[in-house]
Amino acid sequence: MLKDPRVAFGLKLLVTVVAAYFIFQRFPSILTQLSQKLAVADFRFFVLALVLLLLSHTVAVWRWQRCCSAFCPDLRKQTVSGKLLGEFWRVYFIGLFFSNFLPGAFGGDIVRAFYLDYKSKRMSLSVAVITVLFDRLFGILNITWIGFATCLYFRESLPAGLIWGMSIAFAFSMFGLILFFTQRYQPKLVLGWSAKLFSLIPIQSLPKFLVKTVHKIEELFAFTVEVSRQKSCLRDLIISSASIQVLVSLCLLSLLAGLQISVNPLFVFLLQPVSTLGTLFVPSMNGLGVREGIFLYLFDLFDYSGQDGVILSFTWLIVYTVASIPGIFFFLNSSMKKLKQIK
Fold first, then answer.
1. At a CB cut-off of 8 Å and minimum separation 6, what does 338 contact?
2. Tens digits of per-residue pLDDT, 167-216?
3. Distance from C-alpha of 122 to C-alpha of 343, rounded to nearest angstrom
4. Does the pLDDT of residue 103 top 60, yes or no?
5. What is the mean pLDDT of residues 14-41?
6. Distant-in-sequence, close-in-space partners of 253: CB < 8 Å, separation ≥ 6
7. 112-119 LR contacts (CB < 8 Å, sep 24+)
8. Distance set, CA 160 to CA 45, 152, 166 (Å)
9. Contact at 8 Å (CB) between 265 and 259?
10. Are 70 and 230 in contact (CB under 8 A)?
């Protein structure tokens, strides 16, 4: 039933509304408090946060381009010279625009894949989707490692459930990492094992949407094999992913400084991974409500002001939305060019 876009949209909307209801029940004047905080805030830190966020997006664009170049030799040559970085940057921000301004059943990742196929004509939509999925997956692995490390650091202050949850996520990520490197050094072993595994799946008896899912997993697996064979690509993906997390964490620290909220700086390196993973796996309208709930929970857990946590989350949303505004102009410009071509 969830494969129906209308059902998925309704579920996301329901989760967001329910989460927002409980937050406003606890803090009825939260919007007033937010406006008061912003009135006395140091906006120089907000500008710095915006610059850091745009830098993280630019690094993310480069990481996605490297993912694409690993599978497309034609793009690989141009990646070195950076000729396509501007095009990838525009497509990436169009995806951000759809994620932030038109949240719904289809996220910005699908939009990115569509525009990559439509613009470059060097890869099919199916392959473009795989590159986006791999890019997102690599980012999740990096977030999981940081979250697990900070959970261990703050283990005396965290509930067992959160530590176990992050530990399980870390275990899965390590399994994926081991599999990834095994593909590099023992490709025949891994390919033989995966072929046997996929042969056990009764494809003919599965619903159509599950058949498509299985095929996508097979394609994603083949893509990881190709990436694992390229040393420079793997190095770039690791460096870029770590850089993105550092830049985003510095962005949050800048917002905290601008709002004059004092916390342990290392707390941010827990807050960011947990909130990112939470909004990724809990369906909602672009994380609205869920993100605020996670910020509130963690701030309360560390005896910080829960209200400050919600205010920080709202401020983060504002800055993130402002950072995606270029996508509007890229989208409108692309649409105008298409209309001229039709005429």
1. none
2. 998 888 887 667 666 655 555 555 555 555 555 555 555 555 555 555 55
3. 25
4. no
5. 90
6. 265, 268
7. 112/64, 115/91, 115/334, 116/68, 116/88, 116/91, 119/87, 119/91
8. 35, 11, 10
9. no
10. yes
